Amino acid sequence: QQPVQSPQAVILREGEDAVINCSSSKALYSVHWYRQKHGEAPVFLMILLKGGEQKGHEKISASFNEKKQQSSLYLTASQLSYSGTYFCGTTTASSTSYGKLTFGQGTILTVHP
Amino acid sequence: DGGITQSPKYLFRKEGQNVTLSCEQNLNHDAMYWYRQDPGQGLRLIYYSQIVNDFQKGDIAEGYSVSREKKESFPLTVTSAQKNPTAFYLCASTDLSGQGGPDTQYFGPGTRLTVL
User: Fold this and answer.
1) Where on the phi/psi map is residue B72: left (φ > 0), alpha (ψ -120 to 50), or beta?
2) Strand B10-13 versus strand A84-91 pairing type
3) How far is CA B112 from the centre of its chain?
4) Is B78 strand, coil or helix?
5) Do B109 and A104 lie within an 8 Å CB cutoff?
6) B10 has which bridge partners?
7) What are the pLDDT tens digits along chain A (113 aa)?
8) Reduced to 3 states, what is the DSSP secondary structure of residue B35?
9) Which residues of B touch A49 (CB under 8 A)?
10) What is the distance between the alpha carbons of residues B54 and B39, in angstroms, rounded to a whole number?
């Protein structure tokens, strides 16, 4: 069963913040975040492992709440380049040894000037 | 430069024909994956392979076949049995030898297949 992302779409003005959530009904081992521009390959953003760690670089960060089996991606002071579709990919304890990701349906982020 | 290449970028085929999509990586990664992406949807796993000469079905393997004769190559054949093959196909690879847990999956540029 694939993880559920929310919201499905979000529209921002430059400089505004956004949060994208990824929830699973299964016990997760890791969460991987990607951004995809239209017609291109997904680009890796970051990996979070169970343990509730938070990661980030510059204005994009993420957290992993192991108790809720949920990860959140935080985009602060958004830029036009942040526009795209964001996907979370998850592994469980059994799938992680194969590197087998199950992806959410995606969140479309649009940043306007 | 290390990376994953897929060819061709665009592919057109007639109904009833088999077609093979190429995927090559020079990252020395153990595992390779094939995903299908339909408009407005996420990525669904077709097949994956951890080592040479071994592969497993993903969630939507029906109508597809793969081979893994070399570590760097993982071609996907879309057969005439696939009922709705028009989609964007993405190949990915990852290094499974890391001690610290799951590693990043790197994606190729994709092949857009259209059945006429």
Assistant:
1) alpha
2) unpaired
3) 12
4) strand
5) no
6) B112
7) 899 999 999 999 999 999 999 999 998 889 999 999 988 999 999 889 877 666 666 789 999 988 889 999 999 999 999 999 999 999 987 787 778 899 999 999 999 99
8) strand
9) 101-102
10) 30
CB of A84 less than 8 A from some CB of B: no
Choose from A1, A49, A100, A102 for mutation: most chain B CBs within 10 A: A100
> Which amino acid appears at position A11 of this protein?
I
Residue of B30, B34, B36, B43 to mutate when probing chain A, most A C-beta within 10 A: B43
Residue keyed to tokens 């938070």: A54
Helix (H) or strand (E) holding A71: strand A70-75
For residue B6, count other CB atoms closer than 10 A to its CB: 20
The closest of A95, A111, A92, A107 to A35, measured between CA atoms, is A107
CB nearest to A41's CB, from B94, B101, B108: B108
Q: Which of residues 37-56 of B touch A (CB under 8 A)?
A: 40-45, 48, 50, 56
